[in-house]
Amino acid sequence: MSEIESNIPSLRVATCNQAAVQPAGDYVLYWMIASRRVNWNFGLQRATEWARELGKPLVVFEALRCGYPWASDRLHAFVIQGMADNARRLQQTPVRYFPYLERRPGEGKGLLEALAEPASVVVTDDFPCFFLPRMVAAAAEQLSVRLERVDSNGLMPLRATDRVFLRAVDFRRYVQKTLGQHLDDFPSENPLLGAEGPALDRWPEGLLQRWPIADVETLASDPKALSELPIDHSVPPVSYRGGREAAERALRLFVDRRLGRYTDGRLDVRDRATSELSPYLHFGHLSAHEIFDAVASFEDWNVSRVFHKATASRSGWWGMSDPAEAFLDQLLTWRELGFNMSSLRDDYERYESLPPWALATLEDHVGDPRSYTYSLDEFESAATHDELWNAAQRELVRDGRIHNYLRMLWAKKILEWSEAPREALAVMIELNNKYAVDGRNPNSYSGIFWCLGRYDRAWGPERPIFGKVRFMSSDSTRRKLDAKAYLAEFGGQQSMFR
Fold this sequence. Notes:
This protein is of the alpha/beta class and 498 residues long.
């Protein structure tokens, strides 16, 4: 058996190896690595379809390594809180859930193979960033059963095009021309509904003795439980909770109270109108499809209101309110533009991936004198001469995010105050990936590289250090937002941690 009748678009499903489906296997295994949720999830839906077709139990395996880059209390806590939510939601279903937490680097080696060996088929998530593509490719070579990866990343399937878009306007035009083909292809809100099947009666012999199931409920409720793990304890958990339940609350808050102010209130530093959903999108606790569905429902929208002519305009195409259209441009155009590049270019995080004009102009000005230069440690400790920049860095360290407009200033000034552009990029990536809850993501790399010229155009007049790369100043930023209120919260010498 190689194919099944599926409600999932074929563009979203890819076979990773040449191994066959084993109809005589004991269960279907869903290896949850990026879409860490049990709702609105094409991967879980695909695994459920296989379980139904084969008449097998379904097992969900969700693991957390301790040796991944930038592993810390902050990132671990956010993921484990999501695992606890998944455990509670799957407890009321026939699905067997296997949460695993590695206690020492390499301790989990062999677990996937042990779970896959008696399986009929293995399904996992397709996420084109960080170490996940390499991990899936390595697993595909080791497994003796078919491995499929399923794309639940965005409204546009990753494989809808093989072209890398270099400008947002070109990607927006492409989306407006082609999105209609995909708007009917949404994942099931509850892929397990009506999928009652047999439950697994026992785990493979010896499995739990070697790899015990993690008590994620206890770990999620007691951050101190992470203290014995070999991860970075200098980066504490953020004040907001991770996981599916917190993600759903954040989505309701945004749609009900902030969406209507999104156009005019995004620069408000006290009562922010930004969505603050990106951490939940990054860890897969929320789906782009369900966010779109929530916005469309709030707008009482249907597809007949779309202006079918592809104008590439940021507003007016959806036939929704201005705030809703502005938000959807961020959710779809800008977010998925990053997924487009990271899925098609292996060098998306390297300096050489910048457009030729940006590389050339930055090289022309690499020898320009800098009024200030700072080391990584000075940037990290918010020890620059600029109180507004320091406040943005303190917000990143404390809250795992930066106000959306100040995030651009944060990166632009690192470029200005570093010895060379390559060094600046390394600092941006290190600080963002270490502290930002939504770091290590195609969208976060897009934001960093945009500040160096990616997806942008050459600007004049040509300036020292920046050349033709877009310039930003702290003074102009102060005029655009209430810097006094921002500095009142994040300025001064107070601790960067609560």
